[in-house]
Amino acid sequence: MKNKTLAGACLKVALMAITGLTAAVASQPTHAAYPERPVRLIVPFAPGGGTDMISRLLAEGMARELKQPVIVENKPGAGTTIGSDDVARARPDGYTLLMATFAHVVNPYLHPKLPYDTDKAFAAISMIGHSPSVLVVRPDSPLKSVKDLIEAAQAKPGTITYASQGVGTSAHLAGELLESLAKVDMSHVPYRGAGPALNDLLGGHVDMMFGTAAAVGPSLQAGTLRALGVTTTERSPALPNIPTIAESGVPDYVLDSWYGLYAPAGTPPDVIATLNAAAHKAANTDMFRQKVQSEGLVISTGTPQELDDYIKGEQARWKKVISSSKITLD
């Protein structure tokens, strides 16, 4: 009788152990095998631009690391707000990502009525890299340097004109930053896109423009444009002979065209870690580096915290510039 009682007790303990183990397994996160299906990478720009190109190359490399397709979806419009909102509203499961750029930082100050809170809607994965904008003029321009430009703008306030692809774009804010730091007054001429702006610069209708390395590179090589400076903190490897604007007499001048990878807020930390590792490996291959040379991209992958810290610094800087310039799009 005692043996039966003891056997029953042992069986009960064994069943409890099995039940507990089963419950523990069942309670494991469903993303344990992440990724189990294709991942969407939202690009908030139209196909064919620099961000689209960099995103597609990164997606190829990440797909190899994740062993699942990474599908690029272009969702342009409203200054990147449409594509960003798509990611902000997505399930935080690691299957919807965002390639963010300069607009990610400045939109909260340009669009006070954004459909999402930038600081709360996204989880950082990794910075991918930085590339310069280039201050360019025509070859026959009397402006031979940034110093010449500043002196001309000081002598005749409001007469120097600069083109951009629209109000609130990086090219526009590059000019506003120069005005603020150099204490000069210039005239902004917005266009509906970088192409028309560049055409009018080449046609002599405006004095200068801040363009991406990819956009102005062919004209620089052909000699139809001349570069005065680059907007990054250090000289660009793609344009090593062009000084930075900071070293040309405007200390603290910097405008990065950057690319950073995000997921919806609430994405599990282990999924973020998996995506960070995949992005790091994809962006640091020789193939990726060679193919993004035309963008002047300097690869600088890092931790999610490093991306967060960078963005906080940029937000403080650009909030001040936009506020003082009284720029708003709503």
Description:
With 330 residues, this protein is α/β, with parallel strands linked by helices. The chain has two domains: 168 residues, 3-Layer(aba) Sandwich (D-Maltodextrin-Binding Protein, domain 2), CATH 3.40.190.150; 98 residues, D-Maltodextrin-Binding Protein, domain 2 (3-Layer(aba) Sandwich). The strands form two sheets. Strands 2-1-3-10-4-11 form a six-stranded mixed β-sheet, sandwiched between helices. Strand 1, helix 2 and strand 2 form a beta-alpha-beta unit. Helix 2 crosses helix 10 and helix 4 crosses helix 12. The longest helix has 25 residues. The chain is globular and about 65 Å long.
Give a summary of the structure in a few sentences.
Helix content is 45%, strand content 18%. The protein is an alpha/beta fold and 330 residues long. Residues 1-11 and 13-31 have low confidence and may be disordered.
Describe this protein with a few key phrases:
six-stranded mixed β-sheet, globular, D-Maltodextrin-Binding Protein, domain 2, disordered N terminus, alpha/beta, five-stranded mixed β-sheet, 12 helices, about 325 residues, 2 domains
